[in-house]
Amino acid sequence: MNAFGDIGVLLIDTLGTLYIMAVLLRFLLQVSRADFYNPITQVIVRITDPVVQIFRRLIPGIAGIDFSSLVCALLLECAAIAGMLFISGNSMPAVGAILTWSIAGLISMILNIYFWTLLISIISSFIAPFSGHPTLVLVRQLTEPVMAPFRRILPPMGGLDLSPIFVFLALQILRILLVQPLNAPGFVPGL
């Protein structure tokens, strides 16, 4: 592969990952019932709306959850992987392989989103515990549905919240169970 191929793969990987992450954030924010009047949520909706609207016409929402965002993210992931394989000069594998890699990539990306938002939530709880900054409000709204079941199980520890430790463990267990089995030889790293 030449320099232009490397640049093409880098651009597809970087821009594709950022856009797919925005589409996944849109889906996760909707699932967690986050405030869609938050300025950051509005930016995410504005960025992803042109593509998601195409899929929304074809895929109905179920129980108040718009699955068109998730299908959109999956198809974008498939296109990005196929584009990187094409530009790098590799032969195209079967559609099933690309679909499997895409599902593994989306699961990994969702787990990474929760890992980083949980880390931001923990750090912000020490620095600015009662901040009303739109980013921190959105982070709390995104992580609360994941942390709430653990908070119900764990007894109160005198103001110390140990639920993030168990959420981190659960995220790693999910990564081991769902992503690592798909990380077979020939797996496309990146997306």
- Total helices: the number is 6
Radius of gyration: 18 Å
Mean pLDDT: 87
Largest sheet geometry: none
The global form is globular
Keywords: Membrane, Transmembrane, Transmembrane helix
Transmembrane segments: 7-29, 67-87, 94-114, 160-178
GO cellular component, one term: membrane
Protein name: YggT family protein
Name a few traits of the molecule.
mainly alpha; CCB3/YggT; transmembrane helix; transmembrane; YggT family protein; membrane
Structure, briefly:
It holds the Pfam family CCB3_YggT. The protein contains six helices and no strands. It has 191 residues and is mainly α.
How does this structure look, described?
The protein is an all-alpha fold. The protein has one domain. It has six helices and no strands. Helix 1 packs across helix 2, helix 1 (3-31) packs across helix 4 and helix 3 (68-87) packs across helix 4. It is globular. The mean pLDDT is 87.
Topology summary:
Elements: H1 3-31, H2 39-56, H3 68-87, H4 95-127, H5 134-153, H6 163-179
Helix pairs in contact: 1-2, 1-3, 1-4, 2-3, 3-4, 4-5, 4-6, 5-6
